[in-house]
Specification:
The chain is about 40% helix and about 10% strand. It is an alpha/beta fold. The protein has one domain: Thiamin diphosphate (ThDP)-binding fold, Pyr/PP domains (Rossmann fold, 3-Layer(aba) Sandwich), CATH 3.40.50. Strand 4 and strand 5 form a beta hairpin. The longest helix is centred in the first third of the chain and has 16 residues. It holds the Pfam family Transketolase_N. This is Transketolase. One of its GO terms (molecular function) is magnesium ion binding.
Length: about 280
């Protein structure tokens, strides 16, 4: 397969805005959803699926495809919105999210085209990514494996066991992205289990590290395109983000973790996205 960017990169922010708009609509349904974490990683998802990943929606099981794992599986609404925009299934299907009979569940499942494996039991995605990267090596394929982790998820010891294994095995076709929004369900991550200096921590485990603005999809695409950054080393991109980014009444608040938007707040969110209001 040959990578052909779907859009010019100056349109990636437009894609990210559409992803967030779909997430808002899904979170206004009866089941609600993990809005905050889906919003914080929307720019990462836009960069990956519309500029970086070598995938074909018409051939989702192509053996030469790149693999993407949403280790923070609770942000499934963001992944669903991205896959629909990329053409893996009709955008209209998003309206059925969380309803009886829908395959769009609270965490991603393999029944959804483009989903590699069920995820959401936090701490497992990076180990699974190691397996995909090692399998590609043994098969003689150049495919890359990308894993998106939450920063609260880094409290799981299995993440660091996988990080050790990846460096030991020199899996330089493995790329991790940390959605560093600083919040988890019960509060600030650094108030629960401090992780800084996070970049140095990853370097000490043998990874090549870059630390960037997670709300600049052009910059994200540039860095992710360039991986592997150092021969023989897996790569990790620390994306500095804001939970609920784009919604002034929820941004930077733990309350955005899981929401069921009332009609009033749904309208507020739609207006905020339409007017381009961004919480700093």
């Amino acid at each position: 397969m040959t990578v052909t960017p779907v859009l010019e990169r100056d349109a990636l922010d437009t894609v990210a805005a559409r992803i967030r708009a779909h997430v808002v609509d899904m979170c206004a349904g009866p089941e609600g959803g993990h809005l905050g974490g889906a919003f914080s990683c929307a720019d990462v998802l836009a960069a990956l699926y519309f500029s970086v990943l070598d995938v074909d929606p018409l051939r989702p099981d192509d053996p030469d495809r790149d693999r993407f794992l949403l280790s923070k599986g609770h942000a499934a609404v963001g992944l669903y919105a991205t896959l629909a925009e990329r053409g893996f299934f009709p955008v209209e299907e998003l309206a059925g999210y969380g309803r009886p009979g829908s395959r769009l569940m609270g965490h991603p499942v393999r029944a959804v085209p483009g989903v590699e494996l069920p995820t959401g039991s936090l701490g497992h995605g990076l180990a699974l990514g190691c397996g995909f990267a090692l399998a590609a090596r043994y098969a003689g394929r150049d495919a890359r494996t990308f894993v998106l982790l939450g920063d609260g998820e880094l409290q799981e010891g299995s993440v660091w066991e996988a990080a050790i294994a990846a460096a030991s095995l020199r899996l330089d076709r493995l790329v991790a992205v940390v959605d560093r929004n600083g919040l988890q369900l019960t509060g600030a991550t650094d108030g629960i289990a401090p992780m800084e200096p996070l970049a140095e921590r990853w370097r000490s485990f043998g990874w090549a590290v870059r630390d960037v603005d997670g709300h600049d999809p052009d910059l994200l695409a540039e860095h992710l395109d360039a991986a592997p950054w150092e021969p023989g080393k897996p790569s990790v991109l620390i994306a500095r983000t804001v939970k609920g980014h784009g919604l002034p009444f929820l941004a930077g608040r733990s309350a955005s973790h899981y929401v069921t938007l009332s009609p009033r707040n749904h309208a507020r969110a739609v207006r905020a996205l339409r007017d381009g209001e961004v919480a700093g």
